[in-house]
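Cross-check.
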Amino acid sequence: MQLNVQDREITIKIVYYGPALSGKTTNLTAIHSLVEDEHRGKLITLDTQDDRTIFFDLLPIHFKASGNLLIKVKLFTVPGQVVHDSTRRVVLAGADGVAFIADAQHSKKQDNIDSFNNLKKNLKLNGFDPESMPMVVQFNKLDLPDTQTKEEIEESRRRSSHPVYPAVAIQGKGVIKTLAGLIALTWEELEKKHSLEDKFGITRTAFLENVLSCLKMKDIKAGI
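Predicted model, tokenized:
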């Protein structure tokens, strides 16, 4: 997190991590379409010819909170391909929270496991404790055949130490719930470390209300 008490400005970094083609960029594209124009920056996407991210995507979101506090949330993705591990590690540096985007197809189970293990490795290499990093898991692509059932996802939720969200990112379903859940966890961790309420006079509830107020709410009302 970048913290400027004098200018009353906070910048939070969120990283979307996961295997290749799991839907990380699709999440950011959907979020971009769901954020009110005055609260979003330009979505920067760098793709290869086969639509796989080479380096990273960046989507900045910004809004004013109570007490004239400016909050910026920068959303990054990492490339999923194995050969770009060094880039993933660099993008992950300085992260305040991580959204792990899993591919819900049964055939991608091992890819999800490998990518999650890679995430834990790169968190440690960046000096983070994977157990204390604010993190959520999204099971994406539930519109495709042969994906995990609601019962299987519920079982994953019971076994996981992280919140789990179902999604169809290409339809915009589940992306805001995933983001809002992660931002809530991230704020709680930052509050512990930096006493943001004392410094800026903003509570967790007020912060989340400000975040959601800049989003179009149709995703929250979706039935997924």
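The domain at 2-213 is CATH 3.40.50.300 (Rossmann fold). The chain has seven helices and seven strands. Passed to J.P. for a second look.
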